[in-house]
Specification:
Nucleotidyltransferase, domain 5, 5-stranded mixed β-sheet, 10 helices
């Protein structure tokens, strides 16, 4: 048995899975509670309380899909949306507090691992998955294994001007990573909203903006055309570099099939490999992907440590 958590800035969700989860994709949902983002003791108690709702073997591991990263050199966590964890030796702390082995993976990487093993990209040798949510994330799986440290295509200054229209130059927006002009500043839902405001001086949330696009609104259409152009360029470079056979798309924007289709067409037009079938595809696992990816990491930890 594996306890698998999906931990975001707003909510903590728990599920349980068996050790053959990488084959079956089976998951039992247990519960969900708000994330105590600024109270470390309350955060640990939230995990423990959810585990208590699904009693299992005392040595069952706890696997986390975390909206953040663990520095492999120091073991310290970095979680922008959960500040109480930043700078802490998270794995060691949780192992001691919960009395169970703990495995932690980045939430985007867990998403891609699950999609590669039991989701939309099952059977593909090389899978690069992307998250278009509040921001931009991603991960790389080769032959069923996560490539550590790979997939952060949202960072690195790439946004300079609108391709095909040199008269439109966008300000290089500051990014949370410390740089400016990163894909993350325009590629997620908040970035899409910033882009529309920069182009038209109007503030719309991403759902209203995509709805206006579907309705044929001229300004929304221009924003979406430019968005697709700006996001497709760096994504095509990544696909060329890693040779991905399929690119599953998760996050809130992935629910818009027309947007995923537009990005797919734009990326396929930019890559060296020619294919008549979709390259970018919506998630096959929906909101369960992160939790399933964590469960797969937990099952593999058990295999190594039996």
């Amino acid at each position: 048995m594996i306890y698998c958590f999906d931990i975001g800035g707003s909510y903590i969700s728990l599920g349980t899975a068996s050790t053959d989860v990488a084959v079956t994709g089976a998951l039992t949902r247990v519960g969900r509670v708000p994330t105590p983002a600024r109270d470390r003791a309350a955060f640990v108690q939230a995990l423990a309380s959810l585990i208590d709702q699904a009693p299992g073997p005392e040595d069952a591991p706890v696997a986390l899909a975390l909206a953040g990263d663990i520095d492999p050199a120091t073991g310290l966590a970095s979680c922008a949306n959960i500040p109480c964890l930043t700078g802490t030796p998270l794995v060691a702390d949780l192992t001691a507090a919960l009395g169970r082995p703990v495995v932690v993976g980045n939430d985007a990487a867990c998403f891609v691992l699950a999609e590669a093993m039991v989701g939309a990209a099952r059977g593909q040798d090389t899978v690069f998955g992307i998250i278009l949510g509040t921001g931009v994330g991603g991960g790389l799986v080769v032959d069923g294994r996560l490539v550590p440290g790979a997939g952060e295509w949202g960072h690195g200054p790439v946004v300079k001007q609108v391709a095909g229209d040199p008269s439109v130059t966008l300000a290089r927006l500051p990014c949370g990573c410390g740089q400016a002009g990163c894909v993350d500043t325009i590629g997620g839902a908040r970035g899409l909203e910033r882009l529309h405001h920069a182009l038209h001086g109007v503030r719309l949330d991403s759902q209203a903006l995509t709805a206006a696009w579907h309705a044929g609104d001229r300004d929304a259409t221009r924003t979406m055309d430019i968005y697709v152009d700006l996001v497709a360029d760096p994504l095509a470079v990544v696909v060329n570099a890693v040779g991905a056979g399929l690119v599953p798309v998760g996050g809130g924007l992935s629910s818009d099939a027309a947007l995923v289709s537009a990005l797919d067409a734009a990326v396929r037009a930019r890559i060296l490999r020619r294919t008549g079938t979709p390259l970018l595809v919506p998630t096959g696992l929906g909101g369960a992907a992160g939790m399933l990816g964590a469960a797969i990491l937990g099952a593999r930890w058990l295999e190594r440590n039996r």
